[in-house]
Design brief:
alpha+beta; 3-stranded antiparallel β-sheet
């Protein structure tokens, strides 16, 4: 039965979608952000290439760091980590730390 389940689930896998979310999740994991910080990542796959756009912003919108990276789709996780590390070094780490320590509450 496990073999049957694995076969059924394999048919649900969409390789391009898997590569895209691999890049996006690697970015999010690398930044270590939380639900307190506006962090976004969007990957697109075209053939054997993946392109990732991402941002880290202050919750009030006063600062917004954006970045892009592209490369071989088989390197999706590495590309996501690399972009996350780059945005952290460009000030994203400060934004995330501030947001996590000063949770914004409406009202």
């Amino acid at each position: 039965r496990e073999d049957d389940s694995a076969a059924l689930l394999a048919r649900l896998n969409h390789p391009a979608t898997r590569l895209a979310f691999t890049a996006e999740r690697a970015f999010l994991a690398a930044t270590g952000g939380s639900c307190h910080t506006p962090i976004a990542a969007l990957a697109t796959v075209a053939g054997d290439q993946v392109a990732l756009q991402a941002l880290i912003a202050d919750p009030d919108g006063s600062r917004c760091l954006r970045g892009e990276v592209a490369g071989a789709a088989v390197e999706a996780a590495r590309l996501g980590r690399r972009l996350g590390q780059r945005l952290l070094s460009e000030g994203g780490g400060e934004i995330i730390a501030f947001a996590d320590n000063n949770m914004y509450v409406d009202g």
